[in-house]
């Protein structure tokens, strides 16, 4: 294990200036200063197709699997669409979940945050993410869920500025790092 925390960030939205990306940017500032942070582009993945996988793994999938394998933890921030996670995020997770029960996500600590414009903050997407990550055999340390309601009201000039949300994120992130046995890197 290295002293540098290696984290892969995944936005569940394709927009560059999405709420998900703004929140990920804020989370990145809460990580240890010497963390090595990388991002995964969910828009680069083709639609999952077993025939395509059998014909030869696409380069983007091979690279994404290696990126996850090289990470100490994965952090996902996503909007809730139609009471669930966006299809493009699910598609990426489907690619990265293979081979079944032996993927690079198996035993990988995962922290996730949802958001929505309404009062529930994406709690239905939380359930779907938890179910998906559990089926991928990810490590999901018990932490307080972070579901950001009325997300647009908590941002100013492309930054998460709501102090209560930032404090909640920081507490949950600390609990995650501790639960994932990564806390020594955070102190």
TrEMBL record:
It comes from the Bacteria. Residues 6-150 form the NADPH-dependent FMN reductase-like domain. Pfam families: FMN_red. GO terms for cellular component: cytosol. InterPro entries: Flavoprotein-like_sf, FMN_Rdtase-like_dom, NAD(P)H-dep_reductase. GO terms for molecular function: FMN binding; oxidoreductase activity. PANTHER family: CHROMATE REDUCTASE (PTHR30543), NAD(P)H-DEPENDENT FMN REDUCTASE LOT6 (PTHR30543:SF21). This is NAD(P)H-dependent oxidoreductase.
């Amino acid at each position: 294990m290295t002293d540098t925390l290696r984290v892969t960030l995944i936005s569940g939205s394709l927009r560059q200036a999405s709420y998900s990306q703004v929140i990920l940017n804020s989370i990145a500032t809460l990580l240890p200063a010497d963390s090595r942070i990388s991002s995964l582009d969910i828009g680069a993945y083709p639609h999952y197709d077993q025939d395509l996988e059998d014909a030869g793994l696409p380069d983007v999938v091979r690279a994404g699997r290696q990126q996850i394998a090289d990470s100490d933890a994965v952090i996902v921030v996503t909007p809730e669409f139609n009471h669930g996670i966006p299809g493009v995020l699910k598609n990426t997770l489907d690619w990265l979940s293979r081979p079944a029960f032996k993927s690079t996500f198996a035993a990988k600590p995962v922290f996730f945050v949802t958001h929505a414009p309404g009062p529930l903050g994406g709690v239905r997407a939380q359930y779907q993410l938890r179910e998906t990550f559990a089926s991928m055999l990810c490590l999901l340390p018990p932490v307080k869920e972070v579901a950001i309601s009325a997300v647009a009201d908590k941002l100013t000039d492309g930054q998460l500025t709501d102090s209560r949300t930032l404090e909640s994120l920081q507490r949950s992130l600390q609990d995650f790092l501790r639960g994932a046995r990564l806390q020594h890197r955070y102190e």
